[in-house]
## 1
Amino acid sequence: MKFIRLALLLCLPALPAAAHDLWLEKEGSGHVLLQGHRTGAHAGAERVPYEAGFVQQALCADAQGKTRPLTVAAGYPAKIPGDCAALFVAASSGYWTKTAWETKNAPKTGIAGVLKSWRSEDSVKRVSRWSAALAQPLTPGLEITPVDDPFRLGVDDKFTVRVTLAGKPRANVPVAYDGATRGATSDDGTVVLKIRHGGLQMIAASLETPLDDGKADTLIRATTLNFELPAK
């Protein structure tokens, strides 16, 4: 049985290697949305600017899981006010097309020699205070949710998260901790991970599905869960 699980793990698709990390950092009474290469698995600049219209939605959830929309001024880095038990931000860098010569931030329409094209959608959720209501997803998009209080965890503790899409568990989604894929979700959408350090936690998942809008071949959704533990 252990051999079979190892074989399945080795066959898992890796999360996109060229993708940037997306995370929320505490700043004053609110948060700031950052993009770059925060985890060791991603090489390159620690912070990478995004376009002014990158942020599509911001939701502030209270302890009962009720959400309210937040207004986010266009610009980099996006500063998001509000004291939230959980903060969810959805963003998109739009369409991308890869040819033999370059990768362009544009739909494939009218471009010659297309090798691959996709639309990129990203999201990040930061849980700051725990309540049982936050064990449920906040949105219908691709989302990672802790099933129990993550703030009780310490280094080397194991914990379970659930990946959902349209509010339903999603199976066979690769999940990464600090940029390294650690497993895939089971039929109930869950996967067990291990806390490897204190400080900001980065749990990520991605899903690629066909797209038939004529502008790209696939839709690539990527989502990240953040919560912060005492640094040790």
Note: Residues 33 and 77 are 6 Å apart (CA to CA).
## 2
Amino acid sequence: MADMLNIGTAATNTFRRAIEVTSHNVANVGTEGYSRQRADIISSAPSNTGYGFLGAGSRVSSIDRVYADYIQTQLVDAYSLKSRYDEQLSLSKQVEGVVASNDKGLQTFMQNLFDSFQNLSNNPTSSTSRDQVLSEANNMEAMLLNMSTVLGDTQEQVNGQIKNMTDEINKNLTTIQAINNQVANSLSNGGQPPNDLLDQREKAIKELGQYMDIKTFRQEDGRIDIHTGNGRYPLISDNTLTTLNADLTDYKNENRIEVYMQIGGQKVEVSDNIKGGQLGGVLDFRNNLLDRSMNEMGVALNGLVASTNWQHYQGYDQNGNPGQDFFTPLSTNAIQSAKNTGPEDGTNIQVSFNPVYDPTAPVQGTNPPYDSAAVPPAADAQPPFYGDKQTYLGQAMSAIGEFEPREYKLQFSTASNGFEIKDNKTGDPVLDSAGNPVLITLGAPDNGFEDVEGLRFDVTNVAAAPADGDTFIVKPHQAMLEDFSTSINSGEEIATRGQSPVDTGVAGLADETPTPASVGDNVNIANMASLQSKKVLYSDASGNASETLLGGFSKMATNVGMYVRGTEIQLTSQENVFDQVNARRESYSGVNLDEEAANLLRFQQAYQASAQIIQTSQSLFQSLLGAVRL
């Protein structure tokens, strides 16, 4: 009877524990990340009675967590990618609204400008038509100022998001490491797994995956090590926590935040290693849409400014003066790295559009740089012959076709006494027409000048050579977006008139000194209007331009649209993947109330039956006592 009583008592304890575990499951049915628990009930060790082994009832050996590591890993990965594309889409739609709108887009303003050129060509003596040209140019300037401001605000928004997301990542890493320590302590002396702590850790890991892609590695002591998504950099390893740091790049004036880690005592940029989560989405958006859009827009704007200006130089205004800058031409400086040790700060490294260049007799000075005999030429100098004007215009148009939507890094080499030019994004050297890396030497043979992808790189004002390895960056096409402005101040300055007499190129006919055509001539403004349909951008290997100015903007807008559509497709796909994996996780580890209700009923009945065993044991004992008393 004593054994019967012990069996009954153990059984009630067993099923009471089972009811408690089931109740805990029911209570956490709405708890995010909770994994269903299960009481593992086993038989107690039997006793050898001589006539056989007599069972001793049951007991709870452990409380197990219903969990599949591979499902949780899939869930974190799917959640990370879903979060990435969700953030990418939100940001990219902002840019799409700014640069790709058909109603208020840049193409509309440019079309209005060309329409005003055509209208003035039809009425070259009309002051109203001249004022309309100036008005449309100013409208475009105002529109670009607003667009530049909005895109600049977007850059600041991205910087702020990188900082905030980095802070959230560090908070989650700190939480995970703290739980790691608690788990390791619980298991260190052969203890049972702390199920609820493990759930809290998985929840923190999932939240970490919301911000960046990660790889996890389970250790024998119960800890989880965490690395960046490509496995390259440890965030938590051997109980050592390495946080992320959002900071300005070495090019401080660039005002660009990147993500860094301290690895081996060195500050290492790790932005390119983060591909998932919201932070990965922000970084991808900036690198592959925002920067690209601004550079492509800058190429089209530089093409508009350069082609309009150089065509404008061909003509004469209402007062017979040679055409000057219609728009303010490109002129920007480099930004130095904070790591530089040499004396140059970048202000003497200038990039402009100055296509009339002979390496054997370099031309310097203001636009238009016509007179190659004067070094530098006099301001507003005109070429001695009309044919020279046409030659220089052809050179300008050819140079415009070489524009590439990229940023440049200049690295000084003491050995070559010059600057190596690289793509700032990829680090690859920029190649010249012969396929050789571009080098601008301070002395011979370049004498501080070099034409690179249609742009004039000028380092002649660098008085003292930088230190070996000093680097500088320059963003000429983004600079045009920021600095775009109209140079002419009145309609009278518009060079509508052409050249008279015009050199026909007939053999034996002398080239003439440039003189203005008569009042009412519209040759030059008609040529300016025709720029709308002329292919001037993105030359192929044969030197033939493939895009018009409007086509350049259309290409940029198309790329924005493709990025947005591609992101939408990826987001829809990843949402489906996440939903499927989450459903699998809930099916395997989640709490099913119907199942738990059935368990409660089953364990309740078992508990009642166990209590009946105790009652029966007591009844038998009382019967025995009664028999003894007789």
Note: The first helix runs from residue 2 to 27.
## 3
Amino acid sequence: MVQIAVSLGSNIERESNIRMAARAIRSRYPEATFSPVFSSAAVGFDGPDFLNLVAVYESDLPVMEIIRELHDWEDHLGRKRMAGEMTSRTIDLDLLLYGDETFHPMGLNVPRDEILEYAHVLKPLSLVIPQQRHPVTGETYQTLWTQMSAEQDASLKEVSLQL
């Protein structure tokens, strides 16, 4: 079994889509742990704010099957894929971590670069697995979060959402 970390994000019918995605993960992985939910501005385009959180669970699936599973859930929730275009979405499920391994499947980076770049990814991750170490930097997620700028921290608002 390998520990998986997945980011969940939505800015279209966000509460409903986040709940449905969390239910899909929980139905397949009942032991999944979820971070608190945060609201943050869209990145890379003008659009409604996103709701974001992180789920952590264990799986015995190979990395490509995990990615396929995430894409299947996105498709089921109405995700429309537009190559290279940043746009609003019903759901965005990104594989952040696959154990402590590094991969570059289908042009993706695992661990995802966004972990070190965006508060809406790092803060939820640091709350779920604070003492775990980033596979590339070797720093704990808690330490990485304390190093994130106060400006990025201020851009997040915790949201009460029952999953």
Note: The chain has six helices and six strands.
